[in-house]
Amino acid sequence: MSDDLKKGLEGVLVAESELSDIDGEVGKLVYRGYTIEDLAKGASYEEVLYLLWYGHLPDEGELAEFTDSMVAERAVDDAVIEVVRTLAEADENPMAALRTGVSTLSAFDPDDGDADPTDDEANLRKARRITAKIPTILAAFARIRQGDDPVQPREDLSHAANFLYMLNGEEPDDVLAETFDMALVLHADHGLNASTFSAIVTASTLSDLHSSVTSAIGTLKGPLHGGANQDVMEMLKEVDDAEQDPLEWVKGALDEGRRVSGFGHRVYDVKDPRARILGEKSKDLGEAAGSIKWYEMSTTIEEYMAEEKGLAPNVDFYSASTYYQMGIPIDIYTPIFAMSRVGGWIAHVFQYIDDNRLIRPRARYTGPEDQEFVPIEER
Ligand SMILES: CC(=O)SCCNC(=O)CCNC(=O)[C@H](O)C(C)(C)COP(=O)(O)OP(=O)(O)OC[C@H]1O[C@@H](n2cnc3c(N)ncnc32)[C@H](O)[C@@H]1OP(=O)(O)O
Ligand SMILES: O=C([O-])CC(=O)C(=O)O
After folding, report:
1. Does the CB atom of residue 224 touch ligand 1 within 6 A?
2. N or C: which end of the chain has fewer CB within 10 A?
3. Which domain holds residue 142?
4. Does residue 379 lie in a domain region?
5. 216 with 238, same domain?
6. In the predicted structure, residue 274 carries a pLDDT above the cut 90
7. Ligand 1 atom 7: the closest Cα is on which residue?
């Protein structure tokens, strides 16, 4: 047994995976051998889900069957919506609300209860239900808290377009629907990131799929992981609202020893390929709207961070201004990340439990030794 301490488990191999591969030196990401650039350009989120869960890209018949099976699961039980309503009225944090919402889904899942956690067919049915219902829960939460009624899912729209429809109460145009679909494709999987690791730690105890996804949502919520996309937009807004020079802002933040959200990565030494794609999208959206101020502010910060800190943007940096220009409320950026990443979490859980071993690392004990126990009344 090695006594080397690997803080943050950096570089530690704990599993084999066929799902996604990252080359952090050149900034390359692939899902099952397909580059993220090709998938972003050519595949829908539904195709990527199929690829991750079933191992190959679907043909037209397979995709139609899969899509129908997902669409059929979009509606959420009224009792779950009532829980969502209570959370929205209590002004719950959206990620916390999503975490509780997904946890609540298990009470209404016909395959939950005493189901064998390694039953592949039951797990796939649960996977479809959880993934199809997350957008419905999230859109309902976002609407209820602003005093609007939830909008029922439509059957004729894609996963991405249906979410925007349920969120805004109107069908998105093609640019919005395609941009959002692409964002879902980009966020679907990323090796053993922290939230995916949480999901498989939970699965490795032979717990159920809802528990794995709930654990993962809680992990994605933090500002060092998925929570960074919200922080990035709040930072850009702060700079803009104060009519500050972005360079001055970023210098000040670094001088105070603060981290700049959306920069740095455990695996990438160079710009995250997803940030390259989203940066272009952010610029396109700005040009279409007649102002690229968010894009320009972002690139100014990017250049300074590269020069001063040698740090490059991660996926959260340019997703922020992309979502902002799509009119999406800032505090649901991280739940949107979860809405996509659930596909990857589930794929990793399936893969891991196929050859399961309990995940249980060690901590080096640094506490006191040989203490003499003193009964409470004598302390
Ligand atoms: C989807 C995702 O999860 S992508 C990541 C989203 N998170 C963020 O954007 C938050 C900001 N980024 C960070 O905090 C980090 O870069 C992380 C958490 C992503 C990666 O962390 P680690 O691999 O553990 O790197 P670590 O925290 O050890 O940082 C290494 C050095 O870079 C510095 N650094 C890393 N990121 C940043 C940053 N964003 N701003 C300023 N300094 C930074 C650290 O202060 C540290 O410097 P030091 O050695 O002088 O103390
Ligand atoms: O891989 C990571 O550590 C974080 C990340 O970029 C992701 O989860 O998409």
Report:
1. yes
2. N
3. 30-225+330-353
4. no
5. no
6. yes
7. 224
pLDDT digits (tens, 9 = 90+) for 224-245: 999 999 999 999 999 999 999 9
Pocket, ligand 2, Cβ cutoff 6 A? 190-191, 193, 266-267, 314-315
Q: In this structure, which residue's CA is closest to atom 9 in ligand 2?
A: 190
Task: Tally the domains of the chain.
Answer: 2
- 228 in contact with ligand 1, CB cutoff 6 A: yes
- Nearby residues of 295 by Cβ (< 8 Å), 6 or more positions away: 279, 282, 283, 286, 321
Q: Taking 80 as the threshold, does the pLDDT of residue 1 lie above it?
A: no
Residue 103: the pLDDT is 97
- Do 169 and 282 fall within a single domain? no
* C-alpha angle 186-187-190 in degrees, rounded to nearest 5: 105
Q: Looking at the structure, tell me whether residues 80 and 146 fall in a common domain.
A: yes
Give the list of residues 6+ apart from residue 326 with CB closer than 8 angstroms, or none: 176, 179, 180, 285
Q: Looking at residue 113, what DSSP letter applies?
A: S
Substitution site in 265, 333, 334, 340 for ligand 2 pocket (most atoms within 8 Å of beta carbon): 265
**Per-residue confidence (pLDDT) for residue 287, from 0 to 100:** 98
Cα–Cα dist 82/87, whole Å = 9
